[in-house]
Amino acid sequence: MKITPEILLKSLSDQTRLRSVMLLMQEGELCVCELTYALDLIQPKISRHLASLRDMRLVIDRRSGQWVYYSINSDLPSWAKELLQASLKGSLNDKQHKTDLKKLKKMSNRPENRICA
């Protein structure tokens, strides 16, 4: 599926997907367990939304053992990257984004090597 403005904007219209994408934009790469913790949502819900973002080719995943890590697709067209950057800039002062980021940073079992415990 080729990303179009309609696909990108529809993918960001869901609050869970938008929150996930903004954290991925800021952090670079996150494990499903990190997003589950930061967004305070159950793993199946996060995984379902991430699968949708992956199907739209907005994010890519990589497996490391039993863990799945997600990041923004570096092959996105420049206009899409610019829109995501602008969205992140707009989110930096958003109360929900600040809360999500603060919670992620306080995750006690979030090791530096990115392997979730």
In short:
The protein is α+β, with helices and mostly antiparallel strands. The chain contains six helices and three strands. Helices cover 57% and strands 13% of the residues.
Description:
The mean pLDDT is 91. A hairpin with a 2-residue loop joins strand 2 and strand 3. The chain has a single domain, classed as Winged helix-like DNA-binding domain superfamily/Winged helix DNA-binding domain (Arc Repressor Mutant, subunit A, Orthogonal Bundle), CATH 1.10.10.10. Helix 2 (15-27) packs across helix 5 and helix 3 crosses helix 6. It is of the alpha+beta class and 117 residues long. Strands 1-3-2 form a three-stranded antiparallel sheet. The longest helix is centred in the last third of the chain and has 14 residues, at 78-91. The protein has helices spanning 5-12, 15-27, 32-39, 43-55, 78-91, 95-105, and strands at residues 29-31, 59-64, 67-72. The N and C termini lie far apart (34 Å). 57% of the residues lie in helices and 13% in strands.
- CATH homologous superfamily descriptor: Winged helix-like DNA-binding domain superfamily/Winged helix DNA-binding domain
Distance between the termini: 34 Å
Contiguous low-pLDDT stretches (5 residues minimum) are none
Task: Calculate Rg over CA atoms.
Answer: 13 Å
In terms of DSSP E residues, the strand content is 5-15%
Mean pLDDT metric: 91
